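cron nightly-structures :: item 1 of 1
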Amino acid sequence: MPPILTCTGMCRFTLPHCLGNGDMLVVLDMLCAYLEHNASLRSGMAANRANPVGYGDFVLSFNMMQTTNGLVSCITEESSKGPHIGGPSPSLTDLVGEDIPPALQPNTTNPPPPEGGRGINPCWAELLEEALCMNIETTKWQREWRNRSISERKAAKCARHTASIPPTNLPKD
């Protein structure tokens, strides 16, 4: 498969700008930073990481180029509602091809996706902990209510039973 980006020189690549103002020039190190940030967004671990400069423009340009070409591989967009993941994550080889000499290839290791494909960021962890605590409290309240209700029914049944028994002959004095 040919590379998605166009090589313009040593470790420099271009793609059409999303606003139509010519092409965007991206160096290999920035591409690696974008892919690393994309992997962090997908795994839910980007909350504590800085957003690489130009990531938004690159994502819009890349996704627009992919949509125009009828492809589905999209880079994750960051927004206030959380990332929108629209397809498989592209690899560095998908973007630039295999023409990069090993000496110039950056030493990047994308964090492996967590088991199950989703990570839990601190915000989700706090929400889950709160929901768990609320569930425990509700269960405790329901158990107490049930036990109290059972005790009240037993006491009422016992009272009805003792009230319905006729008095026995008591010895006279």
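cron nightly-structures :: done
The chain has a mean pLDDT of 74.
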